[in-house]
Amino acid sequence: MIQHPVFQSRKILGTYFGGWILIMGIHFSLLYFLYHQLLLVSVADSVIFNGLYSILGLMIWYVVRFSMPRSNSSYSMLINQVASLLIIMVLWIGISFSTLKFLFDREIKYLIFLDGSIPWRLISGIMLYMLLVLIYYLSIYYQNLQEKIRDESRLNEAVRESELNLLKSQINPHFLFNSLNSISSLTITDPSRAQEMTVKLSDFLRYSVSQNDTGFSELDRELENIVKYLDIEKTRFGTKLSYDFDVPETCKKALVPVMILQPLYENAVKHGVYESTGEVTIHTRVKKDQKFIEIRIENNFEPGAPSRKGAGIGLRNIRERLKLIYHDDSLVQIRKQESNFVVTVCIPEKSQ
């Protein structure tokens, strides 16, 4: 429910009655300096007429709120406003005149002036009514606009979270499918290695499912999990796969999106180790670069080996996730040389 705009804050309440005090001052000046009424009479006239209208003006809000165009026809809205205007004018003129005539019943000059001022008081009252109605309508439209913006923001956040969940969910089934295939093969050829790989896979997945899908994790924790992944693959590939990490202490506590790096190592294994006859080493270098944490992952491959076909989910996944989180589509850089494949990921620094 939309709150009365005047009572939304002390500042607005003060502005509302401050405006009426200004009108009182102008009213007093006209009576005292232009029409030469007595000081007390001028003060009482300006305070009673404008003070009463300031209170009646608060009630106009409820008429405006009830007569919103979206819930009533234009004709009905006009009838409501005209009826409200008539009631306000009758109450305003009737109460003010009665009070002033009671207070200054012996001031003949003022009473004559008071009776003769009815037309311009009515005109000023109608203008004030129209001004307040306009302000209240603008206030309602503004509040509705702000509510719409908040709703759209919540909706966009929900969509963004859903997209992140969808993108992240593409990682685990892909890796799990490969690992289970390997375990299935090892159960026949080497049961002990299959058991070892099963334990490591369990540790890896336990970390994966325990993380908030749209959250952040410290870099060293992410890399610890990457080592578990590489150990799983090393169980399968043996000496064909090796790896090393160069991570300064100043970078280890940097916050990175959960599971953002795992597809890069999966990609290095898939396109480097699978088709290689020699040893493939995956180098990981991390450094601070201005406001970014730069993570460089490099692996060698055999240039003449046939490349494995793939849907490119891993790299596309990372690009999309980083774009959704940081609103920047230039955080992933790829460079393919004669026998090296290099991916550089820049993570904007995020305070804990």
Key words describing this protein structure:
two-stranded antiparallel sheet, 5-stranded mixed sheet, single chain, 2 domains, 13% strand
Please give a structural write-up.
With 352 residues, the protein is α+β, with helices and mostly antiparallel strands. It folds into two domains: 158 residues, no CATH class; 179 residues, Histidine kinase-like ATPase, C-terminal domain (Heat Shock Protein 90), CATH 3.30.565. Helices cover 66% and strands 13% of the residues. It is built from eleven helices and seven strands. The strands form two sheets. It has a five-stranded mixed sheet with strand order 2-4-5-7-6. The protein has a two-stranded antiparallel sheet with strand order 1-3. Strand 4 and strand 5 form a beta hairpin. The longest helix is centred in the middle third of the chain and has 52 residues. It is rod-shaped, with a radius of gyration of 38 Å. The model has no long low-confidence stretch (mean pLDDT 85).
- Helix percentage: 55-70%
* Spatial sequence of strands, sheet with the most strands: 2-4-5-7-6
Query: What is the CA-atom radius of gyration, in angstroms?
Result: 38 Å
Instruction: Give the ordered list of helices and strands.
Output: HHHHHHHEHEHEHEEHEE
User: Can you count the beta strands?
Assistant: 7
Give the second-level CATH assignment, the architecture of the largest domain. Answer: 2-Layer Sandwich
Question: In percent, how much strand structure appears in the residues?
Answer: 5-15%
Q: Please state the structural category.
A: alpha+beta
What integer is the average pLDDT?
Answer: 85
Main sheet properties:
5 strands, mixed
Low-confidence stretches: none
CATH topology of the largest domain: Heat Shock Protein 90
Shape: rod-shaped
- As for the number of domains, it is 2
Number of helices: 11
The CA-CA distance between the termini, in Å, is 37 Å
Task: Let me know the CATH homologous superfamily of the largest domain.
Answer: Histidine kinase-like ATPase, C-terminal domain
